[in-house]
UniProtKB/TrEMBL annotation:
GO biological process, one term: negative regulation of cell division
GO molecular function: ATP binding; ATP hydrolysis activity
Name of the protein: MinD/ParA family protein
Lineage: Bacteria, Pseudomonadati, Pseudomonadota, Alphaproteobacteria, Rhodospirillales
Listed GO CC annotations: cytoplasmic side of plasma membrane; cytosol
Domain spans labelled CobQ/CobB/MinD/ParA nucleotide binding: 23-239
Key words of the record: ATP-binding, Nucleotide-binding
Length: 263
């Protein structure tokens, strides 16, 4: 017997993890978003997830540089209408994940009109269905284009260091997000901490501001310690988890990835 009532029709179950977009944001530039987005993608793919890393830094895209990739396809070609987003993905085999590079032969994508950016964002959400997780590396700042892309994410990992300016900017990003989209799952990553303990103290400073002024309590996703191996592996364009799997920063990101999956 067939049923005509759409409410009664069987629906394909959508796995809870399918197409889950996690954005990596910061406010302040240079706190380690891109490096962290890459290393988190690697850690998640090591745990058997099918991961897409998307370079959403429209001004200074540089995932390809950190990975030593020379992609012949990128977001620029998508924006120019030459490729679909799916066609723009490149396999990064050393990390076991796919990448949509942001670099554009025609220069920066910073001035892309909002309507066009929205098409990219909509396509990203469609493409995300083919992955267990999409990690979206955002540009610094809180301007409109950054927020527009961030809206594709159900979870936003806000990266900060212990510098007062990084903390203030992380707070500003959290505030705007909490006002614009109160249901966003915001979590904090303290990067380049001198110790786990110090990183936790940095988090608690930010937490107090969020509780006091915004009445929200974004949880700590994790602390990643400052580690000279990070710069070294970037310089060698080799992933940290491959080159120095037992370094402090590698262990911290692995543990953070593990906790993200446990939630
Ligand atoms: N845990 C860490 N320990 C030591 N150095 C780090 C750590 N994380 C990041 N760095 C250093 O910080 C530099 C900047 O990192 P990255 O380019 O990822 O920052 P970003 O936030 O993406 O910057 P932008 O805002 O310009 O996009 C890296 O080149 C790296 O050397
Ligand atoms: Mg970056």
């Amino acid at each position: 017997m067939t049923t005509l009532d759409p409410a009664m029709a069987p629906r394909a179950p959508v796995p809870a993890t399918e197409g889950h977009v996690m954005a990596v944001a910061s406010g302040k530039g240079g706190v380690g978003k891109t490096w962290f987005a890459i290393t988190l993608s690697h850690a998640l793919s090591k745990r058997g997830l099918n991961v897409l890393l998307f370079d959403g830094d429209l001004g200074l895209a540089n995932i390809d540089i950190q990975l030593g990739l020379m992609p012949d396809r990128d977001l620029g070609s998508v924006v120019a209408g030459k490729l679909t987003l799916n066609q723009a993905a490149t396999r990064f085999s050393a990390g076991g994940f796919d990448v949509v590079a942001g670099r554009s032969g025609s220069g920066s994508l910073a001035n892309i009109p909002p309507s066009r950016l929205q098409l990219v964002a909509d396509d990203l959400l469609l493409m995300a269905r083919g992955y267990d997780r999409v990690i979206l590396d955002l540009g610094a700042g809180v301007e409109k284009a950054v927020r527009q892309l961030a809206r594709t994410a159900s979870t936003i990992l806000v990266v900060t260091s212990d510098e007062p300016t990084a903390l203030t900017d992380a707070y500003a990003f959290i505030k705007i997000t909490a006002i614009e989209r109160p249901d966003t799952d915001i979590r904090v990553v303290v990067n380049a901490a001198n110790s786990t303990r110090e990183g936790e103290r940095t988090y608690s400073t930010l937490l107090k501001a969020c509780q006091g002024f915004l009445r929200i309590a974004p949880p700590l996703a994790g602390v990643v310690r400052r580690d000279t191996r990070v710069r070294e592996s970037i310089r060698n364009q080799t992933p940290l988890l491959t080159r120095y799997p037992n370094s402090e920063a590698a262990l911290d990101v692995e543990a953070l990835a593990e906790r993200l999956l446990a939630d």
